[in-house]
Amino acid sequence: MNGLRFAIIGAAAFVAGSATAQTTAPAPAAGSCAALTGRALANGKVEAATSLTTGATVDTGPGMPGLPAAAPFCRVQAVLAPVPGSSIRVEVWLPERAAWNGKLMGAGNGGFGANLGIPALLMRGAVARGYASVGSDMGHFGKSDVDASWALGAPEKIRDYGWRANHLAAQAAKQVIAAYYAAPLAASYFHGCSDGGRQALIEAQRFPDDYDAIIAGAPAIPWTRMASAFASNAQALSRPGAALGAAQLKLLQTASLARCDKLDGVADGVIENPRQCRFDPAELQCKAGEGTDCLSAAQVAAARHLYQGPKAPDGTSFYPGFAPGAEAGEGTWAMWLTAADSQHAKFSTEFFRYFVHGDPEWPASRFDLARDYALAKARVGKELDADDPDLGAFFRRGGRLLMYHGWQDAAIPPENTIGYYARVLAANPQARARTRLFMAPGMSHCLAGPGPNVFDALGTLDAWHQGGPAPERIVATKFDNDMFGYLGFPAKAQRTRPLCAWPKVARWDGKGPTDEAASFTCAAPGT
Fold first, then answer.
1. How many helices (H) and strands (E) does the chain have?
2. Which terminus in the chain has less CB density within 10 A, N or C?
């Protein structure tokens, strides 16, 4: 979502000076990259095909700085128009023929989409590893990934965004690959995080033949319920006296870490298993005569709302809350939850204005959880929601699903993914062999945070799909600049830690260096 976009801009700006201008190969020959230009595709055609050299700047859309190509590739740009009112911009990046590993990786978008900036990050890394890769703009242009004005009175664009764009992009990519390479496609994978994680699950649920194996990070599911929870969170923070500023967030984080950081035997500023943390913000409520370094009753109620999640009118849980330990710092509660212009407030207001009510002036102050959620579910749930646990068709054809979520995610509650994973296991006899979930302590939304958060999900999935054992442990790294580490730019590794297949957690051996993954094993909680 938007926090990831900020990181992309920072990383891209750093390398923009070293990138060369987009360069092209000599005049096209039969079978060349340029010869793909004008090629007819199901539902559209190739608008341009250009050979790029290593270091060439790849412009992915307005508002996004260009990224330098990590390897030479053929950039195929296509437009698909399956029905009137639909126009989907798709890009397929093809490594040089000698470098292609025979595989395809589909890349998810984020937020409400806007351009190809987020898919390009994943596609860049995939091409550098020999994968062909495909991404789309989800069928619309937005001023930013929190802009939903494009959805007003546009049901076909909502369908493109909800489920159609990535499906048609996968089909187009396979057509382009068949035209460009002599060898057939050997395997296809999809990777997305945040709304890209929702898109990943849409692929598994609705289009099980599109991809052989799928990575879904921090999935934004089910969208209508999640957006309603976002609005409820913003509403709770807007009540008189409930605002949580930087000082209050620091109090909450200091207290939660003091209570729970050392539960795993390691004091590292990260809560390894927040489910074991018993922290009540009421501990910080001001007593008689106190006025600083404490919380008012209204602030305690607001903090409890965020930890516990919104409640339905009957008092049951409507959507999970957030884990302790992620309250203060960059990309945490202030940005996502507690600021007056928080991302939750922006996303939910845009959603209800343009997807649900069809009224650009609809005020968030009118939000009613029961009424507006029911309306959202009725009007767009079938297009957007991706919470069906029945993945039988995907598993029957050999599909594998790798999920991950950061415990310090302040955008989408980690418990939401754990809950969906449990429902998948309950609904599918094959799921225990074909699904894995990895929770990342100290990882923020899709990337960054105080814990190790950069890991090779694609390589892990590929090894698993190619016949290796189901993964039980993935080593993650914390860099001094996590985005640079993720992109392969110069960055200093600070520590490593294993991520363990849920429900196991990393357990320190009590003697080795706590900054090295080798000092940890994966064990059941409490053992």
1. 16, 16
2. C
Q: What is the CA radius of gyration of the chain?
A: 23
Q: What b/e readout covers 222-245, taking b as 16+ CB neighbours within 10 angstroms?
A: bbbbbbbbbbbbbbbbeeeebbbe
Contacts of 289 (CB under 8 A, 6+ apart): none
Q: How far apart are CA 131 and CA 123, in angstroms?
A: 8
Residue 129: name the closest of 102, 108, 109 by CA.
102
With a cut of 50, which residues of the chain have pLDDT below it?
A: 2-3, 6, 9, 12-28
Residues facing residue 508 across a β-bridge: 520
How many Cα atoms occupy the beta-carbon half-sphere of 97 within 13 Å? 10
Helix (H), strand (E) at residue 415: helix 414-427
Separation of alpha carbons 3 and 192, rounded Å = 15
SS3 content of the chain, % helix, strand, coil (to 5): 40, 20, 45
ω into residue 62 within 30 of 0, thus cis?
no
- Write out pLDDT tens, residues 369-395: 999 999 999 999 999 999 999 999 999
The separation between the first and the last C-alpha atoms of the chain, rounded to the nearest angstrom, is 36
pLDDT tens digit sequence for 98-128: 999 999 999 999 999 988 889 999 999 999 9
Amino acid at site 410? A
The model's pTM = 0.94
- Enumerate the active-site residues: 194, 409, 445
